[in-house]
Amino acid sequence: MYFIKLLIYLIFFFILLFVFLQNSIERVNVYLFKYTFEDIHVFWIMFFSFLLGAFFAWLFSAYQEIIYRLKIHKQKKEIENLKEEIHNLRKMMMEETGIKSEEKKEDVTI
Q1: What is the model's pTM?
Q2: Chain segment 32-41, per-residue pLDDT in tens
Q3: How many CA atoms lie within 13 A of 12 on its CB side?
């Protein structure tokens, strides 16, 4: 659900950014490390900057989602182990006191 919501927000912002900057006629030169891009519209620089930022935000949220799912899986496994331990302790306690599960069921039904 979170990813769908994020995708809708990103689409909305892309449309808004496109409409808002469509009329941008300014051109600039971009120097990126050893590369030079000359006579580029400001719109494209802003668009790709936003696109790159959205990608990294999505990447971070996907990483967090994986971490949370792994943590939940680990905790569910621990809960199952604890339930099994409780079951074994109850069974051991009943055997120590001499009460068997069949005898107890018969007492309850009478």
Answers
A1: 0.51
A2: 888 888 888 8
A3: 6
